[in-house]
Amino acid sequence: MRREADKIKEFIERIQTLSQYRKRVSHIEYLPARGSHYKEPVHPLPQKLQKALESLGINKLYSHQAEALDLIREGRNVAIVTPTASGKTLAFNLPVLEKILADNESKALYLFPTKALTQDQMKSIKQLFKAVGGDFQAEIYDGDTTPYRRSKIRKKMPNIIMSNPDMLHAAILAHHSAWADFFKNLKFVIVDEIHSYKGIFGCHVAHILRRLRRVCSYYGSNPQFILCSATMANPEEFVGQLTGLEHEIIKESGRGSC
After folding, report:
1. Are residues 169 and 76 in the same domain?
2. Is residue 258 part of a domain?
3. How far apart are CA 247 and CA 73, in angstroms?
4. Considering its fold, how many domains does the chain have in total?
């Protein structure tokens, strides 16, 4: 960590020597490094999941990841509002996989604002699936999914569907009877990058999420909502307006900084 900090300092000092930047740097402030804070969840992870994490080089959880896991296990809706690259993906993947390990019929819906992010998250979940082993399935269902592939997905519902709000509105909720089994067994709704959902677009997404909740209620399910975002000023108000639900807010990241 010290070596990385020295490199950053050298880079800043170098910039100040360049004529095109010399007069543009108005202020420089060095913040002290912060060590990582780890925590054990109240109840240990299933051995199969723990071994999978160890095979990926993850031997312990950051405090915010363990806190999220404990709250989600209690049935709470959770919003994880921590800096970029703090490990939010693992924080929502762990409870989802734990639930699927306990009940293979369990389903989860992941919503992302962009297709590129969806593809990245698919790689992450497949890596975790491979490490855990077992018969788990995750599929992307968006505008790039061919009609043939969509038909196959609807006939054999995977444990996890990754999509986006517009696709949820136009292709899933509008034809919810074809997704009856999925909604009946839906345990989690993960909404990532929620800071993207503001203004008119955010209002649109808020109504879609309320429609989703109504459809789930029709099929007898009441999924937990797990929201993720980079740091924002008013997370309590924002997440309440977005979903219409109360959430436990996790703001403090356990991951250190240099």
Report:
1. yes
2. no
3. 14
4. 2
Whether 116 is in a domain gets the answer yes
pLDDT in tens, 58-68: 999 999 999 99
Q: What is the pTM of this model?
A: 0.88
**Identity at 239, one-letter amino acid code:** V
Per-residue pLDDT for 256 more than 70?
Answer: no
Domain contains 257: no
Residue 216 pLDDT: 99
Q: Which residues contact 219 (CB under 8 A, 6 or more apart)?
A: 176, 180, 183, 184, 186
Give domain status of residue 190, yes or no: yes
Could you tell me which residues are beta bridge partners of residue 83? none
Q: pLDDT (tens digit, 9 = 90+) per residue, 119-171?
A: 999 999 999 999 998 788 999 999 999 999 999 999 999 999 999 999 999 99
Q: What per-residue confidence (pLDDT) applies to 3?
A: 66
Which are the contacts of 254, defined by CB distance < 8 A and separation ≥ 6?
36, 37, 38, 39, 61, 62, 63, 64, 65, 66, 86
Statement to judge: residues 220 and 102 lie in one domain: yes
Q: 164 CB contacts (<8 Å, ≥6 apart)?
A: 111, 112, 113, 114, 115, 118, 142
